[in-house]
Amino acid sequence: MSLNLSSVSQKRTLESILAGRVTKRPKVEDTKELQEAAIQLLYRHQNISGLLSEVVIQRPSADTCVEKAQQKQTVSEFLPSALTGSLLLPVLKRQADKLGVSVVALSVRTVLKRLRMTCNDDDDYEAKEGNGVKRVLLTSCQRVQLCSVLLSARELLSLGAFCPKLFWQEYTKHRTQYKLEVAHHLYAQDILSIKYILESDAEARVWMVAGLKALCSRTSPQAQQEEVQVEEERDIQQAVLSSVVGVLVGSGFEENKGPAGPSRRTSVTCCSILDHMLCWLLDSLDMLQGQPCGEAALENWVQLLDASLCGTSASPEALRRFFMHSLTQTFTYKPRLKVSDAIAMQNEWSFAKTSRLLTVLFRKLAIVFSVEDLLIQLQQVLETHEVNWQNVLSFLSTLLVFNPNAQPCLREMLGKLLASAFESYDLENMITAFLLARQGALEGPSFFPSYSEWFKLSFGGHSSYHGSSKKSLVFLLKFLSDLVPFDPPQYLKVHLLHPPYTAVKHRSLLQEYVSLAKTRLADLKVSVEDMSMYEDVSGATGEPGKHQCQALQDVERALSLFTTTGRISATVMEASIFRRPYFLNRFLPALLTPRVLPLKADLKMTFIDALKKTEKIPAGQYSSYVEACQRQRQQNKKGTSCIEKYDGDDSDPLEGLNVQLKAFRRLVRVGEDGEFSAQLARISHTLGVIFPDRASGTDEQRVIKLHVDEPLTCKLHVKVVDSILRTFCQCLLDASSPPNRQSQWAAQYVDVLLGHTELVSVLMHRLWDLFHNQMMPIVVFRPDPLTEALSNALLCNTQDNMLFCVRTSVAAVCYGICRSNLLPLQELQDYIPTGLVKKLLYLVPRLLPEARRAPLSAPSPETLREPPPVDGGQEWDPRCWGGTAGTCVATWRNSALQLWRNPTFGQLAQLPQYRLSLSEWLAAELRVQRNEDFLSDQDRQEYQRWACMECYLSGPVEQGGCGGDMRALCTLILNAIMDQQEGSPQDLLSNRSLGRSSPRLQDTGTCLPDILSRLQELVYEMQLSGHRGKEEVRQLLFELLSVRCSSSDSQGIGRELRLQQTLHAWNRVLLALPAELLVVAVRNADQRWTLNFHSCIEHVNQYQRRLCSPAAVLPYHVTSHLLRGMLSASARCASSSTEVNRAWSGVPLRCPLLLVSTVHWWGRLSPMLTSVWQRLRDEDPLPELLKTIPDCLHWALVSQQAALSPLPEAPALLLAASLHLARGGQGGLQGKKGQAFRETLETLVQTKDKHCTQVLVFLLFLCVTDTLATVLYPEESGRLGSREMCTDLLAVLVDSQDWHLIFKIQPADQGPYQAVTMATLDEYTRLRSFAFYSVLLEQSPELLKRAVLCPGFLHTAALCYAYLFKLFLDGHAPNLLAEPHINQMEPSQILDQARQFLLRTISQTRPTALSSSQYSQLESLCAELDPEVAAALSTHLGPAGLSQEMDFLL
Question: Is the whole-model pTM more than 0.70?
Answer without folding.
Answer: no
